[in-house]
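User: Can you predict the 3D structure for this chain?
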Amino acid sequence: MCPMPSRLSPLLLLLACCAAESEDASRGGDAMDRPNVLIVISDDLASVATGTWGPGGEGLIPTPGIDALARRGVVFERALCASPFCTPSRQSFLTGRWPHSIRVTQLKSTLPKDAPTLGTVFRDAGYRTAAIGKMHWMRTRVGEVEFGFDRIAGKIEWQNQLSPKERSVLDEYNRGWSRAERKGWSMSNPEGAPLPLAEESHMAPFLLREARTFMEEDNTRPFLAFLSLGEPHAPFHFPPRLLDAVDPSALPLPQVDEVLQSKEVLGLATMLKSRRALKGPLTEDILRGALAAYLRSVLWMDEQLVALDRYLEASGRWENTIVIFWSDNGYLLGERGHLGKNYPYREVVQVPLSIAAPGISPARTDELAHAIDVFPTLCALCGIEPPEFLQGVSLEPLLRSGTKVRDQAYTEFVGQVATMETERWKLHLGAQASAGWDQLYDLQTDPGETDNRFGEASLQPVVTDLVRRMQDLLASTPPDGVSTESWISSSEGANTDKGIRAIRRALSLVESSRPAVAPRPGER
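Assistant: Here is the predicted structure, written as structure tokens:
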């Protein structure tokens, strides 16, 4: 009998326990010279919700599945994403390039169909490739090879295999979250409405089945597979069984000094005021209800990862598979007076990231790392020549010996704000001078980013250094389709004010010239 947490559904028990029945030949060990790669992605996962990245090693809820994947590898305690919301962050991860460089900067930005990706590079190196789950390509084609992936299975494929009755239940449930029906904070599910489908019919177990099928169907070549789960993205899917798993009244809520916040950062205060005019006040009852629904969704995702870990163990795949766990961005759970993302603060841009690989000892590191570094890291670990277009750095020295590989990390919300941080300092620079987003934080004394010191005369050398770093990074990574003459130049010989103006122009140029967005119907 395979011991499992009692709350696991029968389907997940079956997936985990019957893995041992697979033939040894399907393990892919001796037949492959290179390791397999499995990239597991969560959507909008706040670090504080997890045991691995939560304060003091305790999350808001137990996450044994996440912890099981992370504890086998190197846990990055200070990893950043490329953008504080999904599409740009995911496509930067997939291509190894900055959002401004590939000109994928907004929710519906379309990744060019000929863009080289992890899929194309690894497929060319002889790997079988699969994109299973939420990829945010913003394309509508079904059944064709996309971006180097031999197999694609996502929301469309999941819905297509539902019965007419299940589809009717799903359509009725989704109607409550449609743009026409959405009101106030309803998309955050403060009422805690579960998805009333049988658990085995939810999308997450479907994606887990698809991933396992793909991993097992060929033992002659290594695989690169994405398993990109949709949880805990709003409206926070979970089955009815988990309603009693979280008590809203017992949840700790962050303390927010909105008077100080409004004084310190005009841009944030203005944005929150605008959102509340649209959605209404974020009351304690709304926040508690939404946070409970969010955590139930995390629990549901985590159950899939418990089953995945058991499968990897029973099938022997842990021995020859690189397993990466990552979230596309974090999430504000009431911090800063908001529920959501889009803001370039640590709660959103500092994301869970772990890398487990054969021959790499488990460890934790607080050295700077970046999601854009995963692509070159996988090339190094798999013995694949890294393509010249990559804009990150390999984390392999950090994985193997703890050797520092970064002294700065960049994040951008093109058209609004970009950030540059070092071990100690973090600069937020608004795309428009009048927007009120310019900020400077001392991360040693103020890791929560609450004391804006941008205007202090004694710290202007720090501002100058960070501006030059940001300007040089932008200068070396021009956007596709933007002429060199129109783009930003390096910081050599430029003063701070001139550099800031150049950065603002560059961020505005990318936003004003980005390609048309993809159509809404049929999004993956």
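Residues 413-513 form one domain. The chain has two domains: 24-406, 413-513.
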